[in-house]
Design a protein that fits this description.
By secondary structure, this protein is of the alpha/beta class. It folds into two domains: about 230 residues, no CATH class; about 250 residues, Nitrilase/N-carbamoyl-D-aminoacid amidohydrolase, CATH 3.60.110.10. Helices cover about 45% and strands about 15% of the residues. The strands form three sheets. It has a six-stranded mixed beta sheet. A six-stranded mixed beta sheet has the order 7-8-9-10-11-12, with helices on one face. Strands 1-14 form a two-stranded antiparallel ribbon. A hairpin with a 2-residue loop joins strand 4 and strand 5. Helix 1 runs parallel beside helix 3, helix 2 crosses helix 7 and helix 4 packs antiparallel against helix 5. The radius of gyration is 23 Å and the shape is globular.
Length: about 475
């Protein structure tokens, strides 16, 4: 007998629903994600008090498939033996699976059975918010990201991805009610209303474009991760980026995260001079991803070169194990071949870089997964720029998932997001979340685009996650108060 006295069938279904949800994050496949979540809700409602283990099974399917690229990072590029990497990946996925399990546990213990399904969207949002901050946070595969390219994305500038998640889980709940014949007309009407309101919000122009665009080149060096930190390859890496920069005629040139895999003070001065000259020839600026030392501390930074006063941004939100060592885990990090694994954090008070006539809010790698931190530089910033090195994850789901995250940040802030990566996906994203142009993965080149800075603030920039959290909390309070009255 399985946990909670439920036969294995429902757990297998929940696991399959979680695994199928990963398909639903692909463009055009959102109905799969809705259907999978609706199935989970149905299993919860039918299971009595087995909600924890059903939620855990769903989470294990979702994260076991969706973040399987963690194994690639630790084994292929981190040098961790395959059995240990597999065990660590499984443990990580099991930890993440505890969050949907928590929703299952909480909804199963609501005293009023009629309130249980109605409370699930609110509980899911609050638990996703908790996951985004727990142990520095991992908001990957938030359900709202799957709603890109649907009317539900219209809620993003109002309340961020969490409000999109609330509407998406609500839509899944209504889909389930319609399928089982519960209040079909009301369910269909509310389902349609969610979409209509979202579509209306899509038509609102929350921010205003500047009159004059700026020409931009996003450079993609395609340096294989296994060779990136090889001293014998340094000359070839430097020449690749110098050549790409010198071929550009753009006013703003952007190189990826740690494009130069050496500390700035150990990079040949003539190389820095070449990049600076390339930017000045275009009467513009260049953003260079490079580690920077300051005394005993070192930072994952982006340095500006060119006609504007030199400025620097240092990464604030570091990746556990990859960029800093959590207390008690030095042995684990030392077992992997990860260069520069203990960065220092930059100050969260850093302001946008004034380059190429724009105010650029730089974010590095998975910093763009944290919308509440991106808005720290808004509404001052006119453009968002993300520099990344997702070569750590090979040819996996990670680059496409990261592109989804960048698209959501553009929607939330009403700003273009320009993403320069080492091996892809290098892309220009419009203020409406549309991918305007991109380079093929695993190829060297530059993406030339015209970017238009924007001014003003969306509601999300002002209120951040407040609307989604307040609405979710109010819904739970309403259900609790309803129980007290009925009791």
């Amino acid at each position: 007998m399985s946990p909670g006295g439920v036969k294995p069938g429902p757990y297998a279904l929940a696991f399959a629903a979680g695994a199928a949800s990963v398909i639903g994050f692909q463009p055009g496949w959102f109905p799969v994600l809705l259907g999978a979540f609706a199935l989970l809700v149905h299993l919860w409602i039918a299971s009595g008090r087995s909600g924890f283990w059903l939620g855990f099974a769903y989470g294990l399917g979702l994260y076991g498939v969706g973040v399987s690229w963690v194994f690639i990072s630790m084994n292929r590029f981190g040098g961790l033996p395959a059995p240990l990497a597999a065990l660590a990946t499984l443990g990580f996925c099991a930890l993440l699976a505890l969050f949907p399990a928590l929703v299952g546990w909480a909804q199963a213990r609501l005293p009023n059975p009629s309130s249980r399904p109605l409370a699930i969207p609110a509980l899911w949002v609050l638990v996703e918010w908790l996951r985004s901050g727990f142990l520095t946070g991992f908001p990957w595969l938030g359900l709202g990201y799957g709603a890109l390219d649907t009317p539900l994305e219209g809620y993003a500038p109002v309340g961020g991805v969490l409000l999109v998640t609330l509407t998406a889980t609500g839509a899944a709940l209504l889909l389930r009610q319609f399928a089982v014949g519960e209040r079909r007309w009301l369910s269909a009407a509310l389902f349609a209303a969610i979409g209509v309101v979202g579509a209306a919000l899509q038509a609102v122009e929350w921010t205003k474009p500047k009159m004059t665009p700026v020409s931009v080149s996003l450079l993609q060096g395609n340096i294989e991760q296994s060779l990136k930190f090889d001293p014998a390859r340094l000359g070839r890496i430097l020449e690749t980026y110098a050549r790409l920069a010198e071929e550009s005629r753009a006013r703003l040139i952007v190189l990826p995260e740690t494009a130069i895999p050496r500390f700035l003070d150990s990079v040949p001065p003539q190389f820095i001079a070449r990049l600076d000259a390339a930017a000045r020839r275009n009467q513009g600026d260049l953003l260079l991803g490079v580690p920077v030392r300051s005394g005993s501390a070192y930072y994952n930074s982006v340095l500006s070169l060119g006609v504007s006063p030199q400025a620097i941004y240092s990464k604030v939100h570091l990746v556990p194990f990859g960029e800093f060592v959590p207390p008690g885990f030095r042995w684990f990090v030392d077992s992997m071949a990860i260069p520069l694994a203990d960065f220092s954090r930059g100050a969260r008070t850093q302001r946008p870089l004034a380059v190429a006539g724009e105010r650029v809010a730089v974010n590095i790698c998975y910093e763009d997964a944290y919308g509440d931190e991106i808005v720290d530089q808004l509404p001052e910033a006119t453009l968002l720029v993300n520099v990344s090195n997702v070569a750590w994850f090979g040819d996996s789901l990670a680059p496409a998932q990261h592109l989804q995250i960048a698209r959501m940040r553009a929607l939330e802030t009403g700003r273009m997001m320009l993403a320069a990566t080492n091996t892809g996906i290098t892309a220009a994203i419009g203020a409406d979340g549309t991918v305007l142009a991109r380079l093929p993965q695993f190829s060297a080149g530059k993406l030339d685009i015209e970017a238009r800075g924007r001014t003003g603030a969306t509601p999300y920039v002002v209120l951040v996650d407040g609307p989604a959290l307040a609405l979710s909390s109010l819904l739970l309070f309403f259900f609790a108060a309803r129980r007290r009255r009925s009791g």
